[in-house]
Amino acid sequence: MKHATEYLTFETPHRRDYVNITDRVEAFVRESGIQHGLVLVNPMHITAAVYVNDAESGLIQDFDDWLERLAPHEPVSAYRHNVGEDNADAHLKRQLMGHQVVLPITDGRLDLGPWEQVFYAEFDGRRRKRVVLKAIGD
Amino acid sequence: MKHATEYLTFETPHRRDYVNITDRVEAFVRESGIQHGLVLVNPMHITAAVYVNDAESGLIQDFDDWLERLAPHEPVSAYRHNVGEDNADAHLKRQLMGHQVVLPITDGRLDLGPWEQVFYAEFDGRRRKRVVLKAIGD
Amino acid sequence: MKHATEYLTFETPHRRDYVNITDRVEAFVRESGIQHGLVLVNPMHITAAVYVNDAESGLIQDFDDWLERLAPHEPVSAYRHNVGEDNADAHLKRQLMGHQVVLPITDGRLDLGPWEQVFYAEFDGRRRKRVVLKAIGD
């Protein structure tokens, strides 16, 4: 069995940002030398998510509007968590987006469908965050 | 280490459909010969989800009503993605349902609880879609 | 390749409860002897979820309020599933929280970020439920 681990670092300019990390996951898989296996892409912070969806700017704005509607940032005081904090909504938004993904490795490559793109979604940015990549396989 | 890969194909008759694929995942696990491991069940399209829940027709209708309430199809023009498209809601609905699942293999069998059933949820059907099954283990 | 399996049992006192199981997952990983791999933490029941987020009591109350707003328990009769049942909302809530998690094992330890804590979220408690832990790796 082979395994590989890498940590990506992010410090996004805005409170909320959506960063396409597909190339970085693909490079990690290639360099791992794993031919068949699984790769976990997991944010190590609880106000961010990794998700798979479309790299289309209109849809990314739709996601952002929708997340803000279902888990609004304001009023900040509506959340019990927001005592000396203002990021309770970020904890909720990351659950809505599904937190993390596991992706297949086939014939040494990330085995994605035609439109699947891997995104890092930041909901409480302007600080240093990490994502762990962990691959195992043959 | 053993590994196995299979692609399931779907072309559902309606825009939204819920297809129980438990038998197909179980058959895949059995044929893989893996005794202990993990199996990823991942839709390769970004307007569909794989989820685990109850095979009860009332609940499936409840899910459908609820998804339509939280991420409505209409008005189509409310979404920026819908320029020459009408499936923005499908991208959102699939995130609500959690996108994908990873399931345990124990003693050569899919290790499910008494009511756990694996579903393919289609939110933009009437076209050809694929789900990848990827198992690794011993 | 190494593998390990364990079943945790819960019978929570309330309909909805949030139980921090980080210590139990960490102990399981240590005892598995696996140095590099993945661990799946999966509820075997479809009215519960396993999620990763903050162990802060205000936030847990925020989650509970928010889940009740997006997938309310009442009116019970609003759900088609609730014929001789009253737990349809629990099936929906568990999807919102993301159902399950897969976590990395690095150097023999659960590889979590500074605030990542693993929770068992019960949405239809006062009965016996199980969570399966399945680790594979080297």
Tags for this entry?
3-stranded antiparallel β-sheet, alpha+beta, 5-stranded antiparallel β-sheet, 138 residues
Tell me about this structure.
The structure is a homotrimer of 138-residue chains. Chain A has a single domain, classed as Jelly Rolls (Sandwich). Chain A has helices at residues 22-32, 57-70, 88-96; strands spanning 2-10, 17-20, 37-43, 48-53, 101-106, 109-110, 117-122, 129-137. A five-stranded antiparallel sheet of chain A has the order 1-8-3-5-6, covered by helices on one side. In chain A, strand 5 and strand 6 (109-110) form a beta hairpin. By secondary structure, chain A is α+β, with helices and mostly antiparallel strands. The radius of gyration of chain A is 16 Å and the shape is elongated. Chains A and C meet through strand 3, helix 3 and strand 8 of A and strand 4, helix 2 and strand 5 of C.
